[in-house]
Amino acid sequence: xxxxxxxxxxxxxxxxxxxxxxxxxxxxxxxxxxxxxxxxxxxxxxxxxxxxxxxxxxxxxxxxxxxxxxxxxxxxxxxxxxxxxxxxxxxxxxxxxxxxxxxxxxxxxxxxxxxxxxxxxxxxxxxxxxxxxxxxxxxxxxxxxxxxxxxxxxxxxxxxxxxxxxxxxxxxxxxxxxxxxxxxxxxxxxxxxxxxxxxxxxxxxxxxxxxxxxxxxxxxxxxxxxxxxxxxxxxxxxxxxxxxxxxxxxxxxxxxxxxxxxxxxxxxxxxxxxxxxxxxxxxxxxxxxxxxxxxxxxxxxxxxxxxxxxxxxxxxxxxxxxxxx
Length: 325
Description:
The protein is α/β, with parallel strands linked by helices. It contains twelve helices and 14 strands. The protein has two domains: 183 residues, Rossmann fold (3-Layer(aba) Sandwich); 128 residues, Rossmann fold, CATH 3.40.50. 35% of the residues lie in helices and 20% in strands. The strands form four sheets. A five-stranded mixed beta sheet has the order 9-11-10-13-14, sandwiched between helices. Strands 5-7-6-12 form a four-stranded mixed beta sheet. A three-stranded parallel beta sheet has the order 3-2-4, with helices on both faces. Strand 13, helix 10 and strand 14 form a beta-alpha-beta unit.
């Protein structure tokens, strides 16, 4: 195995699928010669040629329309939206076209499109670049929404996403791109979509989370362990469809739960997870299910983002309330 950052694992996954299937095409703004703004596609054009890894105009709507058309002609497009805050420019192609393709055609056509995009705060990006808009995608039937939290997961989930016959929104938190390394197999492997992962076992409280908040939650769990609390951390990995079975199994084991997301409290998918828990496992609960999320305001300018973003201290504070209930 090799020690990889998440960005290296993503590049490795793209390279794997470009080699495996000649119908896989990678395109977007600056993904070709420059290798992407974060170098996720570095050297892929050199290896596979300009017909399979290519730049597009700075027009997300055009990128989306191209992906729709190519998917109907037997290709497996992997377009990149350079920052997910610009998804509004391509929302019709995603929600109005790709998500409905199988139903609209009576199963005649699929839309095997994997839309990659960076998102998330903590790295001092300009306005509109860091927004957590995954909730918009998760509320659209017909889409799968995947958010890895580790290099190992990123490679396996991206390979599965590209091979999937339905449209997948694959969101990559910018803070995780190069924040740590992990052992990642150099050979190909896949991780099933729609399957959560218990990142840390525990018996007193379940923390259900995804993306960059997985690392914050693990840190909080380690601090709580020093006080004698056994905390389980469930990484959703796929936020649509949710792995309800793993969520409920964890909550039934611990009897207490909090849901953690970086998105604003009114956004993201935390409210949906809380609803699923209360509908399916309320008799197993020993305390209310609480949420840790950002304030219900627009994302602040970078000077204030560290105050605005949830962190492990916020998680500890909320977890303590539930543990003491």
